[in-house]
Amino acid sequence: MELSNTESIAGKEVTETLGLVRGNTVRARNVGRDITQGLRNLAGGELKGYTELMTDARDQAQDRMIEEAESLGADGVINVRFTTSSIADSGAKILAYGTAVRLR
């Protein structure tokens, strides 16, 4: 599966547009991670536990988007975008979306 955040993929021709595809996930923080990250926040620096949580969530959302594209018979997704939003006090939603296409 070819992915691109642009309208095309270098060296490939879009032969058919199959439509919008998306994948999302909602991840919640856990109490243990909140405590350790809260201590890190006092000292300053990257909150690595949260960075890992967001990376895992983004990967899962992207994988789900790819699965939806494959179910349409796509071999590429162009104009890929990611959005993030908060859900309640302890969760984050990641959405990956783009346009499923067939390439030559």
Account of the protein in words:
The protein is an alpha+beta fold and 104 residues long. The chain has a single domain (2-103), classed as Translation Initiation Factor IF3 (2-Layer Sandwich). Helices cover 36% and strands 40% of the residues. It has 2 helices and 4 strands. It has a 4-stranded mixed sheet. A hairpin with a 3-residue loop joins β3 (76-87) and β4 (91-103). It is elongated, with a radius of gyration of 17 Å. It starts with a strand and ends with a strand. The model has no long low-confidence stretch (mean pLDDT 88). This is UPF0145 protein DJ69_14920. InterPro entries: UPF0145_dom_sf, UPF0145_YbjQ-like. Belongs to the UPF0145 family.
* Secondary-structure-derived class: alpha+beta
CATH class: Alpha Beta
CATH superfamily: Hypothetical protein apc22750. Chain B
Number of helices: 2
Q: So what's the overall shape?
A: elongated
How many runs of DSSP E, i.e. beta strands? 4
Outline the low-pLDDT stretches.
none
Termini distance?
A: 13 Å
CATH topology: Translation Initiation Factor IF3
* Strand portion: 35-45%
- Estimate the mean pLDDT confidence: 88
Helix and strand sequence: EEHHEE
> Which second-level CATH architecture applies?
2-Layer Sandwich
Major sheet characteristics: 4 strands, mixed
- Measured as a percent range, the helix fraction is 25-40%
Structural Rg: 17 Å
Number of domains: 1
Strand neighbour order, sheet with most strands: 1-3-4-2
